[in-house]
Amino acid sequence: MDRSILPVIVGGDTSTYALGRAMNEAFDCEVICVSPAPITAITRSRFFRIWQVPMDQGDEELLGTLEEISAANPGAHLVLLANTDWFSRFTGEYRDRLSPHFIIPFPELPVWEKVTDKAHFSELCQRAGVLTPRDAVVDLHGAGAPAWRAPEIDLTFPVVAKPADGLEYDAVDFPEKRKVYFAKDPGELARIWGPLAGSGFRGRFLVQEMIPGDDTCGISLTFYADSHGDVTLSGGARVLVEDHFPRLIGNPIAMMTQDYPELVEAGERLLKEVGYTGFANMDVKIDPRDGRAYFLEINPRIGRNCYYMVVAGANPMVPMAADLIDGERPARVEGKRTAIYSLIPNWIIGRYLRQPRLGAQVKSLLRKGAVQDPMINPAERDLRRAIIVRLQKLNYVRKLRRYYPRPVGQYI
After folding, report:
1. How many whole angstroms separate alpha carbon 278 and alpha carbon 80?
2. 147: pLDDT confidence band, cut at 50, 70 and 90?
3. For labeling, which of 21, 165, 202, 378 is most exposed (least CB within 10 Å)?
4. Sign of torsion, CA 116 118 119 123?
5. Overall average pLDDT of the 222-232 stretch
6. Crossing angle of helices 85-93/109-116, nearest 10°?
7. Cα gap 125→130, rounded to integer Å
């Protein structure tokens, strides 16, 4: 393995630190963070170097910044990373300009478009023989006209509504904005469209029949498909607790890594169906009524909780570097170790586990110390950083008490 690796991560949040930590642990390398205002956990880290940029850089300005970084680090293998959909698309759109300077573990633009259009996701699942909830599409293209009315939805309520194109949705803002919307009946669904139309949003919204279940019914899968289209990394984790802040709802903050061979095989079929290469993350939900698994979406990036793969015993950066830097075709790496990945204090996790067997398993793992928080790194020595990271863990408790004081929904 060539060790002259220099990751360049665009972003400055907790997922940026987790990506950088995975790279540092794999290759003992420095990490460049490209951000206007990275969090203290990054600025006071021993292995991050900050490349500060102005707020809201346009595409040309960001391309110029990245080219400056390349010119300043001749001879290094620059691995371009991030954990946002917009940057994943950015790498696809400007691949010809970026690829002479950077290693890019993201899918190419045509594939990106296929997997991120949630309105076409059910077709992809059908071709791959994978279950996904029944859905319908509401197009707000003409929502500015006085006569516009949303179509009637022939689905069984309750339903979930979310933008078909997340980047288009990110461009608008309004007080009622949510990451996803839940509607118990047609009346509740109808009330979503007015604020959306008033915000200027003119894209499509996907409405899906809601699979019941609390947070613990969610499964996350992570893959790396190499430059030949073969999956060389796979693993999964069961969600224990999600963030319930309205604009972040659905983001796991505590998970239990596990081996899910059948789900991994189904996810691999989806990637093969579109000729996917690079990192991918998939959201799955298990129906507590019958145990069937429904695939909800493919994220064209490694995922903000990517460090759970390290916790599971498979650092995802190793097969990626073997493929894109060394040109090797190594044996597949699978994250099979059962452990806890958590951003929140251990003592609060049990409050949200109503299934006795799951609760006992998690309690046993915590008692054995089989738990890791990507932000709490023994290699870091800065006292101020340590204090702030632990205060942030406690802040999750405050948010949970406000937005999710007790678990709701069926569980498995």
Report:
1. 12
2. confident
3. 378
4. positive
5. 97
6. 150
7. 5
| Residue 334 scores a pLDDT above 70 | yes
Least confident range from 22-26, 115-119, 261-265, 339-343: namely 115-119
**For tokens 């022939």, what's the residue?**
154
CA 83/CA 252 separation, integer angstroms: 14
Helix axes 85-93, 59-72, angle to 10 degrees: 80
Residue among 153, 172, 154, 150 at smallest CA distance from 163:
172
pLDDT value at residue 3 = 56
Q: Using the predicted structure, report yes or no on whether residue 1 has a pLDDT greater than 60.
A: no
Q: What is this structure's pTM?
A: 0.93
Half-sphere exposure of 309 (CA within 13 A, CB side): 31
Question: H/E/C letters for each residue in the chain?
Answer: CCCCEEEEEECCCHHHHHHHHHHHHHHCCCEEEEECCCCHHHHCCCCEEEEECCCCCCHHHHHHHHHHHHHHCCCCEEEEEECCHHHHHHHHHCHHHHCCCEECCCCCHHHHHHHHCHHHHHHHHHHHCCCCCCEEEEECCCCCCCCCCCCCCCCCCCEEEEECCHHHHHCCCCCCCCCCEEECCHHHHHHHHHHHHHCCCCCEEEEEECCCCCHHHEEEEEEEECCCCCEEEEEEEEEEEECCCCCCCCCEEEEEEECCHHHHHHHHHHHHHHCCCEEEEEEEEECCCCCCEEEEEEECCCCCCCCHHHHCCCCCHHHHHHHHCCCCCCCCEEECCCEEEECCCHHHHHHHCCCHHHHHHHHHHHHHCCEECCCCCCCCCCHHHHHHHHHHHHHHHHHHHHHCCCCCCCCC
Scored b (16 or more CB within 10 A) or e, 121-134 reads: bbebbeebebebbe
Asked if residue 88 has pLDDT above 90, the reply is: yes
Of residues 231, 321, 253, 332, the one with CA closest to residue 24: 321
